[in-house]
Amino acid sequence: LxxxxxxxxxxRKKVGASGPEKYTEAFIKKQIEEFNLGKRHLANMMGEDxxxxxxxxxxxxxxYLFPSGLFDKQARPIMKHPSEIFPEQRKIQWGEDxxxxxxxxxxxxxxxxxxxxxxxxxxxxxxxxxxxxxAQDLPVQKEKKNLAGSxxxxxxxxxxxxLEKLSDNEYSRFIQLLxxxxxxxxxxxxxxxxxxFSKEVSVQLEKTVIEPLKYDERGVAFSTGExxxxxxRATAVVYDNGTGKIxxxxxxxxxxxxxxxxxxxxxxxxxxxxxxGKHDTVCTVSGGGRSxxxxxxRLASAKALRSFVTEKEVEFMRQAGLLxxxxxxxxxxxxxxxxxxxxxxxxxx
Amino acid sequence: xxxxxxxxxxxxxFFNVKELFSLKDLFDARVHLGHKKxxxxxxxxxxxxxxRLDQDIIDLDQTMQHLQLALNFTAHxxxxxxxxxxxxxxxxxxxLVETTARECGEYPHPRYWxxxxxxxxxxxxxxxVRLPDLLIFLSSLNNIFEPHVAIRDAAKMNIPTVGVVDxxxxxxxxxxxIPGNDDSPSAMELYCKLFRMTIIRAKDKRQQxxxxxxxx
Lengths: 349, 216
What we know:
The complex is a heterodimer.
Chain A: H1 25-46, H2 55-65, H3 82-85, H4 110-135, E1 150-152, H5 155-162, H6 168-183, H7 191-195, E2 198-200, E3 214-215, E4 221-229, E5 232-239, E6 246-248, E7 251-252, H8 253-256, H9 260-272, E8 280-286, H10 290-305, H11 311-320
Parallel strand pairs in A: 6-8
Antiparallel strand pairs in A: 1-2, 3-4, 4-5, 5-8, 6-7
Helix pairs in contact in A: 4-6, 9-10
Chain B: H1 2-10, H2 23-28, E1 33-36, E2 48-52, E3 55-58, H3 60-79, E4 84-87, H4 94-104, E5 107-109, H5 121-124, E6 134-137, H6 149-156, E7 161-165, E8 176-179, H7 185-215
Parallel strand pairs in B: 4-5, 4-6, 6-7, 7-8
Antiparallel strand pairs in B: 1-3, 2-3
Helix pairs in contact in B: 3-7, 4-7
Subcellular location (chain B): Mitochondrion
Family (chain B): Belongs to the universal ribosomal protein uS2 family.
GO cellular component, one term (chain B): mitochondrial small ribosomal subunit
């Protein structure tokens, strides 16, 4: 009785070292020839000189001849040099007599291990130099470097550099080696080598600058602020030496906001800073509804008040939530549902 | 060409490897020091001279003979332009092994051994790979104190092996074992120096013989 085993899942074959797609050198050469020929044809079609036809001209020509309304830029037709389209491939690693070119070929990951070897050699160099200096009784000191402005290469960037897949363990080992090299006092010798693996990080946070007070013709200090909430946009000008009068779009606040809740919103920043009857406010607001306009004016006046107040009180305002823009907007309605969240009534049968 | 290859085989010590080392050199490099009595492997007992204060001492006369045979064999392989692979799993000597192999023009492998390197080479590397013709083990255990996988794989692929076996190693599958210490830096530097000198000597001799042949 012969039993034949069949599985529904397809057995995974062991994929070769170069990956699923292999491009032979001949294939890539043919692609380059076709590209150059196509470039000349395109130049003739557009009526331009084939000799001085640059990549930008090609992109423009293709966009003109094959207009596409697709949103994804990468889905549109492109015509680029094959070296940019086909990923870099490893050529044959050994010579005619069969001997591999690279001395670490038999390890399997030659670029990664040769990198580790080189880095370790630099480490030994630095240690030797340090020993020499101590033998000659010279001082061993390190200049303070700005460490905050740089970061190491990520695993993906390193993989691209080496053209080899790395595991997380290997990547962390390499970073550990680099860190060790950095911490040594005389590592300035190998500065150039380390810079190959570090990238600069641009300054992320910009502290918001509080504008200074401005003075109008009468000599009264004032300050402007802008605020938004939902679809309402507001600008508020807060004057010093006032009586607590608030004007919105030329209309007094009592008439513009009949509801108490809205007027309380407007009052909140002044109440928080104990400056209720001390400032005059003139605001302009458009868009949104009643509540949204009130919230917008509140944010605008709080921003304007920053110039009148100490830094500590600004921090208190920020923690109270007076200076944060409210990100809540109306959520869109989805198909298959009645509203943004409400689903249609579920009927059992 | 035939004469070029068959001439070295007629002499017992064509490359004169005996002069490269002496018993005193081995003793000074602490090659005779083994592990403690409890770590002793059963098959290493014929190579052990004795035991002092629980530490095994390796018989340096036997080591001399084995070393001479092994160096002679590597010299012949290098003369016939074979690929030599230096294997070691000792992390402290990784850099030393790589630099030695680089200077010889041969190939080191002091890193983690991927499973199918020898047995699955055609899929891992590509179809026309040439496998190494000799494996030299500067330490025949891996980091878990088990025999290195490459010993078994080389035996499977009919690749001869030369290996430094310490008192806790299994010398069975290695074709040319060299009983000796594999833990001290002085001993490892000595081995590296000896292998480097033999390989360079053999390659130079090959070049000379080829030049002589061309002149005729």
